[in-house]
Fold this protein.
Amino acid sequence: MKELSIDLETYSDVDIKQCGVYKYTDTPNFDILLFSYSIDGGDVITVDLASGEEIPIAVINALTNDTVIKWAFNANFERVCLSVWLRKYYPQYFKGYYAGDTLVNHYLNPASWHCSKVWANYMGLPHSLKAVGKELNLTHQKMQQGKELIRYFCSPCNPTKKNGMRTRNLPEHNPSDWEIFKQYNKRDVEVELAIKEKLKLTPVPDDIWFQYTQDQIINDRGVRIDSAFVKMALQTDISTRKKNFMMLKKLTGLENPNSLKQLKNWLETQGIVPKNLNKKSITQLLTEYPAGIVSQVLKIKQQLAKNSVKKYNRMLDMLCNDGRARGCFMFYGAVTTGRWAGRGIQFQNLPQNHLIELDAARNAVLNLDYVAMEEKFYTFQKDNGINHKTPYSVPEALSQLLRTALIPENGYKFIVADYSQIEARVLSTLAEEEWRLEAFISGKDIYCESASRMFNKPVVKNGINGELRVKGKIAELALGYGGGENALKRMNALDMGLNEDELPSLVTQWRESNPKIVEFWHRCGKAAIKAIRYQTYAEVNDIRFWCPENILYIDLPSGRSLTYRDTELLTSENGYEQIVYRGNRNDKLKEVSTYGAKLVENIIQGISRDILAYALGNLSSYRVVAHVHDEVIVEVPLNTQIQTICNILELTPPWIPELPLKAEGYECFYYQKQ
């Protein structure tokens, strides 16, 4: 036996959509109902565990044999479920694995597991088994009855007189549907096998499977949650919402000031007729009415609308019995670039913290000390060069304290390290923009250097012409991928003090200062068009474009490819030739148009992702608990030096040796953003 393809149907009293597979299995009521498998691509066999059938011992052995590759679509689910099931029913066969010097004794070794979902995503296909089968036009398609059958057999049911007050449906309660469910389980393996057969000529590189293993180890490890702090934060939110609601009732005289209709009517009595009361509208109204009762009401309404506190609930939802939340990262979540996506807690969009006294703010929440909250929930904002103490509302502060709910184990600390301007460095390297590379190598401030070239005068941070640095910064952040005036606006250029009239010249000045980057956009666009039109190869520096059978591949220096399915060339309304492909949108492939600079954005983000993956591999002997785009969070012994982790991040991949990497870090006893 070389390969084992698997699909499971399971039962749990925990909602997997809300809590993830680790918490889903971390309950005494979890069990496996059906186990379908195929050995080396042979016939699919279904084992009805719920009806007393048993998995052959040879297959049980294969599950823990690291020389047998186990395949499943979204294999993390099967691996975690089977880990818990084996420990429960076949403890003598179960074995964990070592991650660095730490024994992971709850889960099977991910090194011998491959995921056909990852393979599909690598090929530019959607995330779900049903959608992949449809896109590949497979003979075997996922059966439509699945959702209803899963709802019936795999989740608790409401007790009623009609069902005898039972809380769970068993096979004997609906034998005919159970037989269909067995066919459904079998069909999923057949579809997975068909996907593998369809994609066999374009295998996933071994490096990607190594990265997948590292991803699974990080998901297995999880991150510790300060559950006491989370519970107090939720209690603080409940009390504050109640107080704010009563204050709104008092100010407006409304029975339910949460009702937008009632609040609109009240505003009309104040001479204000808003079109709507969304976040943007309320912010605009506050600029028009900065004081008085209307301002009070709108500010309180803003606080009531703040929903970041939901993430505290999600932390508790995902909390396993050992105090850690697991399964927060989805490998190859972004189909186009291959970047990770977040699950559950969503590390990618945790708010930053700007509270000055972070320790004191946390302690105020832990102690439900509302007086201290009023004193400690503040920051400093500059006005005409003078720092002014600016208070935060309780909802704003709780939002900023979300990161601090993630803590290391006792006797450990976090080292948080990230790459400095990784995308700008990769772009400069690929485009061979020498002045930028020299600035990075010399450790110069790229925003000042960019502004100096744009305005032909020296710019020094907090020094001569220092006011121009903000223009260099906003240009750097917004314009690297062909963006124009709208890109500057999306990067909040107007809020940062720039005038709309100066935006066009800012775009021109940045592009004139970076001619090789602009040329790189055009060269990549032309290379892609050539590859598509002539079904041939085209190269730009270290990037190769090729397009067999209308699938455009962009080979990155790492050896990984970006995939664009069903590409063709069309003429746009303004007469330009544009590239059109079918990209993943909401788990369906839909027509997307692209061009040179946009392809460059995908390329740079893809390479930046590969650099992070390379770093995670180098950090495999450390306890990485989380990562976000260009940042890693490592749980380390107290004597570990920050520079040790930064030095590992700065190891340049052999496939891009000229890249000037720079990493910076800090240590903390709860996660934060410095």
In short: The first helix runs from residue 16 to 25.
